Amino acid sequence: MKTKRKVDRRVARTRQMLKDALISLISEKEFAAISITDIINRSDLNRSTFYAHFCDKEELLACIINELIEGMMKSMQESPSITDPCQNGYARPTHATIQLFTYVAEHAHYYKTMLNNQRVPQLAQRLSDTLYKFYLKEIENHPDREDPLNLNKGFFACYLTSAVIGFIYHWVVITDLKYSPEFIAKELTKIFTMKPYIPYLQPSTSC
């Protein structure tokens, strides 16, 4: 049993080295320009080791994206709805919302590299598709909740998705993780609950 655990740790470590190497290279040049030789040189591993784990660089990239998406969604086990008011009039962000941003912070280098340019558009698209399906399901699973605006479920899910991805991008790429996950979760909660005044979005009072 100890030998198996040792082998498992060695496999995980090797795969992590290959993933780190690819992310490092993506920060420097286009994915299309990256070769297997680049990856093994950067990871200080040999070619046979690479092919023992991945058939090509596309499979390696897919593995990274899948793990980021799966880890992010796993962190959101609670319902993301924000319905817990505090005395100051704001709502507390749910544990799921905080956990979401905590996960992103723990993998910030990966998110920053892959969202900071157009070299790997697959991550942004997969994030959008996955979050949209998640939020749409949450909305459809709670038809009993009051909805005085009678919002279109698809557009509402799209709004939630865009807000979360926008927050992740601004926090990780623009501010370089200047704020804590708890702060980001609170700021997102304010938008969902306080409805900031934006003049050009206000309905016209004229007939």
UniProtKB/TrEMBL annotation:
TM region positions: 154-172
InterPro entries in the cross-refs: Homeodomain-like_sf, HTH-type_Tx_Regulator, HTH_TetR, TetR_C_Firmicutes
Superkingdom of source: Bacteria
Domain HTH tetR-type: residue ranges: 12-72
UniProt xrefs under SUPFAM superfamilies: Homeodomain-like
KW ATP-binding (keyword) present: no
Keyword Transmembrane: yes
Pfam family, one: TetR_C_8
Keywords: DNA-binding, Membrane, Repressor, Transmembrane, Transmembrane helix
DNA-binding region(s), chain positions: 35-54
MF terms in GO: DNA binding
PANTHER family: ACREF/ENVCD OPERON REPRESSOR-RELATED, TETR-FAMILY TRANSCRIPTIONAL REGULATOR
Protein name stated in the entry: TetR/AcrR family transcriptional regulator
